[in-house]
Amino acid sequence: MAGGGFAVDTPAGSFDGRVTLSVVITCFVAASSGLIFGYDIGVSGGVTTMVPFLEKFFPDILRKAAGTKVNLYCVYDSQVLTLFTSSLYLAGLMSSLVASRVTAALGRRITMMIGGATFLVGGAFNGGAENIAMLILGRILLGFGVGFTNQAAPLYLSEIAPPKWRGAFNAGFQFFLSIGVVVAGCINYGTAKHTWGWRVSLGIAIVPAAVITIGSFLITDTPNSLVQRGKIEQARKALRQVRGSETDVEPELKELIRWSEIAKSVEKEPFMMIFERQYRPHLVMAFLIPSFQQLTGINIVAFYSPNLFQSVGFGHDAALLSAIILGVVNLTSILFSTTIVDRFGRRFCFISGGLVMLFCQIALAALLAAVTGVHGTKDISRGSAVMVLVLMCVYSAGFGWSWGPLAFLVPSEIFPLKIRTTGQSINIAMGFLTISVLSQSFLSMLCHFKFAVFLFYGGWIAIMTLFIFFFLPETKRIPLESMYTIWGKHWFWHRYVTNEESRQYDNNI
């Protein structure tokens, strides 16, 4: 099929597994890694609208806002302010590349623990910041923490979850990320009127960091990681724990050992191997899926939604409350995605969500052009501001059942074991690279492009939706170690993959 929309049969002898209380608790703890990323996304935009924070660190913005003829799109155009946001993502980019080797050498669990502890220290620095340098240093430490957890947690969830329910369990990471956004918005709303409010908002980041640090200490590592590091007995124990004591785990363990031996038999460096022709589809997905996720514009909206809503006519409190509403809508749509992602598939969620977001971006651009004028100098009515919020909410919902959870899920499930941590590292690094560029440039783009900035993101959403339709095969219910089958049957990617993995699989079953 031209669109690549086919179903690949689950290979015979696959180990479906059942949902046990242990696997639910374990995945719940691992998914809570999303809290720290979500909290930072939610808290940053709100804090940058607090007058005491701006007075201390960014007084130029207040002077600009007091101007009588300021363009409503340009109030928050400050490169220093955007550096406050983007510094975290540049640090996350660097740490995610290092995290690949840490994850392979020490395991997924230890990597999450390191990320949580680093984020905790960064939160303490930000809460106690006395100058820009201290603030940026704290942001860099937060970025290191997020880089480690974003690398390890999606891998952990994909490896530990039963294949039949892998999509729902992996969506837990995005679910907790959204909880972090909503909680941060609520805290911003409650602290905004106090001179010390920004310190509380930034400092409370140590709480979700402590949750993941302590939680990682209490759970087992994934059987895949334990086998890869030669800890067979621990892997057996971990399998029994997550699959249930009455389940015969030996066949699944034997399968993991065989694939680990195949991976170890290849002496090439993973960062070199992933560039081989047979891994071209994996590499393309690792580069494009995280980049496309950021080019939907969702995290930019989350960072700057209080600024944006304040610019288009909401008061300060109303702008913070609107950002909370946006987060709650996104959270609800992620819950909806858990009910459909393993039933209707990844492609359906990607494409339907993309179409919804595309409509909303075009509608937002048209509405803002009509009510603010081409140059953004006309006042926007209360009714029009509410309509902006409604369209933002629909857009956020579309993202929540598509690119939100699936941009973490799909890359974490498509790589063979020998390049899995490397592929995930590239995936996370590309996400951080894209978001750092966008976050550094968004406020300037908003100032210069005005309403057309939404058409910019709408154009990218159209491109990525077409890419999914033509180039992403369906991955639902395929065991991780059998994922190679989807590429050989795809209309385009079959010309790149070889039969090497198929022969290895057949010879070792």
TrEMBL record:
One of its GO terms (molecular function) is symporter activity. Pfam families: Sugar_tr. InterPro entries: MFS_dom, MFS_STP/MST-like_plant, MFS_sugar_transport-like, MFS_trans_sf, STP/PLT_plant, Sugar/inositol_transpt, Sugar_transporter_CS. Residues 26-476 form the Major facilitator superfamily (MFS) profile domain. GO terms for cellular component: membrane. It comes from the Eukaryota. NCBIfam families: SP (TIGR00879). This is Major facilitator superfamily (MFS) profile domain-containing protein.
